[in-house]
Fold this protein.
Amino acid sequence: MALFTVSEAKEKELLARMERLGVREEDLRETFIRASGPGGQKVNKTSSCVHLVHVPTGLAVKCQRDRSQALNRFLARRLLLDRIERMQTGIASAERRRIEKIRRQKRKRSKRAKEKVLEAKHRQAEKKALRSKAAKVHDDGHD
């Protein structure tokens, strides 16, 4: 059953994660490319870079972390699952943030917050009152 050159536990964990996220092996399109960068003749001769595309979502990853194609296949799947998971939880967390924002807006103010608002209103009223008195005094001086 060994598909990749990793321990059976890691492989089982990957397959379980794929199932949990609803990703099937049939949904993946896998191509192999010659890797670039350091590695010498081995890298230049073999197609060890894995390009993995999840067809339903259109997400794609490239993995050339190792010189082994089998290990890169495993790592590419893990990267792809990370992206799919982030995408799924990102949508859910955005919705959760929106709901929480509405909840905060509707929540009753605390006693301290109400007192602060009233205090600010009183200060503003006093400023306005002083302005009107100053205007009246100024007007009375010209008459």
Q: What stands out?
A: The mean pLDDT is 86.
